[in-house]
Every structure is written in C-alpha cells, then in structure tokens.
Amino acid sequence: MELSADLSKDALAEIFPPQLLRFYPALVSTEADALAWARAGAPEGALVVAGYQASPRGRSGIYWKVDGQNDLAFSLIVRPMFPVKRAGWLYTVSISGLADALGDEARIEWPDEVYIGQERAGAVGVQMGPGEVSMDWAVINIHVAGASRPRGQQLKRIVDAVRVRYRSANEVVLGDYLARCRTLGRQVVARLIPLGTAGPTVSGKAVGSLPDGGLVILTEKGSRIVVLPQNLGILESPGETL
Questions:
Q1: How many domains does the chain have?
Q2: Residue 35 sits in which domain range?
Q3: Whether the Cβ atoms of residue 179 and residue 217 lie closer than 8 Å to each other
Q4: Mean pLDDT throughout 138-162?
Q5: With contact defined as beta carbons under 8 Å apart, do 140 and 80 qualify?
Q6: Strands, DSSP E only, in 79-200?
C-alpha cells in the first residue's frame, strides 16, 4: 500500500531529519511501533507515520477510525521532565498544540479532542513511559480528520505547535487552554476506568483544569473532585448511557 504523494516517504524526508522519522505504508498502529522505539532509546521528537493503520488507538485504547487517504494520524515521542504525578499535563500541552495548528476556531473538549463548530476535527492520546520520579518518555498519538493538503506540511505544523506548548510556561499554556476549553461550565458525567454500569462515576459541573491535566468537577454536594485524563473512560452529558 502506497501513500498519496502529499504524505509519501519522499515528501516527509524533505521535512524531517531521517533520524527522527520512521515511515510505513501500512502498520498495525504507529503507537505500537513508537512505544517499542521509545523503549529502545528513540530521541526526543521522533515520529512514526503510516499510510494505513489496522488498529489506531487513542486515549484509554479508544479505537480511532482513520481514513488513510484523507486523514492524518501519527505518533510523536517525547522525553518530558514532568514528575510522574503531573503525567496528565501531557494531554493539556498536546491538545493545545493540536488546537493551535488547526486554527483560531478550534475548541478543546477535555481531555483529548478538538472541535471546529460541531465537527470533531482531531484527537490525541498519550501513553506514558515508566519512571518513579519523572517520566522517562511518552508517546503522543495524534489524529486529524480531513487533514489539509499537503499533509506533510500540516504534520510539521502540528509537531512544531505541540513542541512550543510542551516547552512553554505552565501558566501560559493553562491560561490559553482554559479560554478555549468548551467543556468548562457544562454539566458532565465522568465514567472512570474500569468502565461498566457499576463502575465509578463523578457527576457535576466542570469548573476548571489543573497543571496535572485534571478536570475539576463541582458536585451537587459542593465537593470539588479532580478527574485525571489517564483515569477517564468516557466523559458524557447527564442522561447519556454507555
């Protein structure tokens, strides 16, 4: 299977250094390859790109439906200095970078999606590597629906935008994030892992987000409960069902 010219191996080789790029016409998932590469010592900023993925996945293993001819899906390896307790911050910086690259109209749905109007324009998923104090590495998976052409150039814009957010001051990133997060102010039901009809849930009004990536939910009893991205199964509106 060969990619169209705008996202071919040759097109990407003109944009990214060879030591930072792995390209495959077809792959089970870029995440699986990136995880193996990260464990083997991949450098900061390494990318895995494929024309077709048999099983692309986002946060918590959520299946992504990716159109190989029109969408853009890839994995970015980073080596963060964040302490393990702030691992969820990678969701904040990566989704902020994706929203930046998709334009001024892009709005964030905590913790992992970008919308333009009512259409889902993209999503991220993060797999954190081991580390007792700080994370050794992490893999950021990114999906853009209906990517702009040439897709190789949009890939670069997204990677550059994520890197800018990743290296920016926390207060700057969080301030911009809160201003464009459409989840805030809404009534939500957070269904936590493990999912199921008897699984744990947190219900209330979404009132903020923190430097660990957590969503602050104000319950009917007046308690403020923080839900971390890595603990979330599904975020719903009241009345929705699994």
A1: 2
A2: 5-180
A3: no
A4: 96
A5: no
A6: 106-109, 113-116, 119-128, 138-144, 187-192
